[in-house]
Amino acid sequence: xxxxxxxxxxxxxxxxxxxxxxxxxxxxxxxxxxxxxxxxxxxxxxxxxxxxxxxxxxxxxxxxxxxxxxxxxxxxxxxxxxxxxxxxxxxxxxxxxxxxxxxxxxxxxxxxxxxxxxxxxxxxxxxxxxxxxxxxxxxxxxxxxxxxxxxxxxxxxxxxxxxxxxxxxxxxxxxxxxxxxxxxxxxxxxxxxxxxxxxxxxxxxxxxxxxxxxxxxxxxxxxxxxxxxxxxxxxxxxxxxxxxxxxxxxxxxxxxxxxxxxxxxxxxxxxxxxxxxxxxxxxxxxxxxxxxxxxxxxxxxxxxxxxxxxxxxxxxxxxxxxxxxx
Length: 326
Fold this sequence. Notes:
Strand content: 15-25%
Number of helices: 9
Oligomer: single chain
């Protein structure tokens, strides 16, 4: 660990993490966390030592000029904090710990243990990991986001899907399992990115992940230019698809399959969720005014004692984007 600043004192903190690489199709997840850092002016307070986790022949450092001085930026994972609301203001005070980095090349168990060490010291109440995978979904429809957990009690309490996936995984799946075995409530939000337009960026998928995060935490997220970027992205893909009759026909078949699978009440649910998000952004809080209902122990700001993750391999909750499965 490279601690750049002293560990901050936080209020009801939630850790939100995303990693570039296998679990980040279209860079959608890492871009979502980067958006939060930018909009909420995140303050970096710590970084993991790059020597411990990265193969520099795979993720190479970058040299850049800083006022004529040559500097090196090493591939790593950084932690920043953003503070929402205030003690006496209309919006209830709460903090987020943002984790953004690159999927490590080695020592994944140690990597997760170090992040969980930060979570324990900071009193993190919940870990939310963002991921994106390739799927058979049309770019013209809302981006599917699946919320999964390996915690049976949490799945029931928050009406989440309990993961049953078995197969290859990335650092997102390993961190999810490490949290579960350490007693830390953890949820993974997976966005499905159309496999026929997988290259980054994908602002529409990033926007969908932020909407899902809003719904999970009950906080309003400032969206900035992201909705307009998402619309421009879709128009661009529309134009590209129209130039290729085979692609256009394929997209049409995906649309028909998606529309057939949708339940009749799905559109009504989507409208209700969008209205709730509007209220949160307008008022800066959830409509009910209760942003902490998901906590295991709402009366305490400190987490319960944690046990360290087991060293054995664990079943991952979700596949990586390379598999195109969910």
